[in-house]
Each structure stands twice: as C-alpha cells, then as structure tokens.
Amino acid sequence: MLSKSIETALNKQVRIEAESSQIYLSMACWAETKGFEGIASFMYLQSDEERTHMLKLIKYLNERGGHATITELKAPKTKFGDFKEMFEELYKHELFVSQSINDLVHIALEERDYATHNFLQWYVAEQIEEEAQAKTILDKINLIGDDKGGLYLFDRDIQQLNVQSSVGGKN
Ligand code: OFO
Question: How many CB atoms lie within 10 A of CB 143?
Fold first, then answer.
C-alpha cells in the first residue's frame, strides 16, 4: 500500500513523463516541417518512450493501492531557433527528469518504501542512458555547427540511433 506522500510524488512524475512525451512530440513536428525526417522519427520514438514511462508509473500506482490521476499538461514549445537549440533543450530536460527521479528515490527511502525504491531503479538506469544519448547528440550537433551538409548527414545517421534503441529493447 502506498502512503499518501508517495502517491502524490509518483503522480507528479506521471505528469512529468506525460509532459516529456508532449515536448518530444512537438520537437518531432518542428523537425518534420523543416524536412528532417531522421530527426523527426527519432523524436517521435522518444515521445512514444516517454509515454511508456508514464504508463509504467500509472500501472504501479494503481496496482499498489494508489490512484493514478491524469491532469492537464503544460503546453510544449512549438518552435526552435535551430537544431542546436532544440537538442540543448532536450538535454536540459533530461537532466531535469533525472533530478526529479532522484528526488523520488529520496522520498521512497525516507518513507522506507523499499518496494517503490526498487521500482524506481529502472528509471534511474533509464535516465543514465537517456542523458548519455542526449549528450552524445548535442556534442555531434555542436561539431556540425552551421554546416548544412553535416546536418543532412546527421539527419541520416540519427536513424541508426532509432534502430539501436529498438534493437536494444528499451522501455
Ligand atoms: Fe522518461 O525518460 Fe526521458 O525523460
């Protein structure tokens, strides 16, 4: 049985994962309208992943005697100055999510809720992966700078990341 404070904290994370999904969906749309199919499909996939993160929390909440509550979400940004700006935001957002997961882990330990603590370890590992991936992409984008040809190749190469993530069986 979940305590009220754990239930509230997990529900806050449900919302963060849902907002993450919307943020990446919006990035996918922006990239697609700019004609960057590779980046767009990478972002669509990221958006789907965030939804699975949200659902995993929802299931856990409901199965452990809590109630997952679905709320309205903050509207994501719809336009970006350039891809560098967009990927910087993605990286910053992942850092924010990691912090939020760390806070949750902290609350679980304080409450001596070891089941929730154990459940959250999946998210701790996931965030390490997501942060690293976002950082790798950002480093590449910084190397490319304003080079249009480089961006074209990057758009093609990022498809590889999609394939690797699905082969790696994330989620
Ligand atoms: Fe939910 O993993 Fe990224 O944010």
Answer: 10
Per-residue pLDDT tens digits for 105-137: 999 999 999 999 999 999 999 999 999 999 999
Q: Any idea where the domains of the chain sit in the sequence?
A: 4-168
Ligand 1 pocket test target in 50, 92, 98 with most atoms within 8 Å of CB = 50
The rounded Å distance from CA 1 to ligand 1 centre is 26
Vertex 75: Cα angle to 70 and 78 (nearest 5): 145
The matching CATH number, chosen from 3.40.630.30, 1.20.1050.10, 1.20.1260.10, 3.40.50.970, for 4-168 is 1.20.1260.10
Of ligand 1's listed atoms, the one at least distance from the Cα of 127 is: 2
